[in-house]
Design goal:
This protein is an alpha/beta fold and 255 residues long. Helix content is 42%, strand content 14%. Strands 3-2-1-4-5-6-7 form a seven-stranded parallel β-sheet, with helices on both faces. Helix 5 links the parallel strand 5 and strand 6. Keywords: Oxidoreductase. It holds the Pfam family adh_short. This is SDR family oxidoreductase.
């Protein structure tokens, strides 16, 4: 875990998809850096465990039930975070799901579900965040980070809905940044490479998954802490001149 410091002191960070994987990691490093964190996802029991663990370390965390595909749920999550910590001035839109398989095997319902969470969910989260930051007069120092993927840039068979949704997220980040360029908040994307998380851990343990890893130049997955530095930077005051960017952090996997 990144060493505790106060680079995010005074910030309130809302993180979607925070019940495991990258979202949990982001919540823990943001809290360690001094932020108040609102952990949002559907698995409330898991969120409460993580929040309690963060609290035991002397930091502030709140578990909030959230379905990012539903606008009312998004608004309620922001209401709860604001009631506890004040205006949310920092957001990580991380929630995402995947349905894999042949194009012919993926149902319309599965396709729509991926886009409802991965694209509509990011849109609703970022829009609500920016609206509230602007209304509170805190948009200039506001930070929104959208979690995309290297699959949104490269061609990977078997995950068409996921890859297409992440390409949409990357472009949406630029569009948000342009629209709010004069008012704030700053909006940036990160496109992680393959890292072992809840969504892919079992597959990478298979023979096919291991074969995939051997195609990478460094023949390994991204380290657990590989995104810490760029995420902490993008959430901080140091990123005041950074907006509309997409940071690819993949340990050279796309080389």
């Amino acid at each position: 875990m990144t060493e505790a410091n106060d680079t995010l002191a005074g910030r309130t960070v809302l993180i979607t998809g925070a019940s495991g994987g990258l979202g949990e990691r982001f919540a823990r490093i943001a809290a360690a850096a001094g932020a108040r964190v609102a952990l949002c996802a559907r698995r409330v029991d898991r969120l409460e465990q993580i929040a309690a663990d963060i609290g035991a370390g002397g930091r502030q965390a709140l578990a909030v039930a959230l379905d990012v595909s539903e606008e009312a749920s998004v608004k309620e999550a922001f209401d709860r975070a604001e009631a506890a910590f004040g205006t949310v001035d920092t957001v990580i839109a991380n929630a995402g799901i995947e349905h894999s398989g042949s194009v012919f095997d993926i149902s319309v319902e599965q396709f729509d579900q991926v886009f409802a969470v991965n694209v509509r969910g990011v849109f609703l989260t970022a829009r609500e965040a920016a609206r509230r930051m602007q209304e509170a007069g805190q948009a200039e120092r506001g930070r929104i980070v959208l979690v995309s993927s290297i699959t949104g840039q490269s061609v990977a068979p078997g995950i068409l809905p996921y890859s297409a949704s992440k390409a949409a997220v990357s472009h949406m980040g630029r569009l948000f940044a342009r629209e709010w360029a004069r008012t704030g908040p700053n909006v940036n994307c990160i496109s992680p490479g393959y890292i072992a998380t809840d969504i892919n851990h079992d597959w990478f343990a298979t023979e096919s998954g291991q074969k995939h890893i051997r195609t990478f130049p460094r023949r390994r997955l991204l380290d657990e802490d590989g995104l810490d530095g760029v995420v902490l930077y993008l959430l901080s005051d140091a990123a005041k001149n950074t907006t509309g960017a997409n940071f690819t952090v993949d340990d050279g996997q796309t080389l």
